[in-house]
Amino acid sequence: MTQAVQIPKAKTLRSFLQPLTGGEDLVTFEGDTWKRWRRIFNPGFSAAHVASLIPGMIEEAEVFKNALVEHATKGDLFYLEHLTLNLTIDIIGRVVMDLKFRSQVQHNAFTAALRRHIVWTSTGFHINPLEYFNVLRPFVQKYNTSVMNHYLTQELPRRYGAMQETTAERNSKRSVIDLALKAYLEEHPTAKGIDADFKEFAMAQIKLFIFAGHNTTSAGAVFTYHLLVKYPEALAKVSRRAHESVRY
Question: Is the pTM of this model over 0.85?
Answer without folding.
Answer: no
